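This week, study the protein below.
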Amino acid sequence: MTNFPELVVLATVMGLSIYLSLPIVLAKSVASRTIVLLTAVAIGILIFLLGDVFSDAATIIYTNPASPYLASWTYAVAFLVACVGCFLVLLFSEHRSGKSRLQPRGLALLVALAIGFQNLTEGLVFGAFWALGAIGLLTVIFVGFFLQNVTEGFPIAAPLIGKNERSLSVLALLFLIGGFPTILGGVVGYFYNDSLLDVIFDALAIGAILYVILPMLRSAFRPADTPEASYVKQRLTYLGVVVGFALGFVVNAI
């Protein structure tokens, strides 16, 4: 199970599975209600990813030999600094740009980067287990990561749905930013894996997701032109968030 070329092939399949959502997000005619629903589904997936990524980091942070409920200070401080630092860097970068809010393409890029950080840690895990030859775990990890990456195309594309920037070339590049780190992580994890690096990349992913999910929520709950339209939009948002969260949970549980 230590065949390196096979690792690269499987890591590539996992990373590039994100492109399987392209046919849906590139649909030429998208109704306004569909845009609201897909955006809400993307928010639900991101909310699930917040919990999923933190659960991965927590298994490393809470390894204090004195008690399973006490955090290791080294990992805890690294996580806090990386998470808050990522959020503040994005905040001040946007403030210095003089823009009151992120443009759709910029928001999509940040989502892609956040997912890329998360996929990097997943690749590290896969590469490390591949080097150990843990066949049973590898099968579970491969299937889980593959299916999860398929769903991650929706959060990246959500800010661009219904916009002129939603071109094949733009989405292809954004999906590559989100999916390629899986391949990179697999290669690096095969030769070297460090728990501190996993915590830092998980923290960066959480900081970036927190930053991008706030404007997405603000847009999702912005009132429509009429009270009736606002009611429909609100209900679709609630439904989409629940569906997105459930989708992330089910995919991760398989």
Remarks:
- Residues 4-253 form one domain.
- The radius of gyration is 19 Å.
- The mean pLDDT is 83.
- The chain has one domain: 4-253.
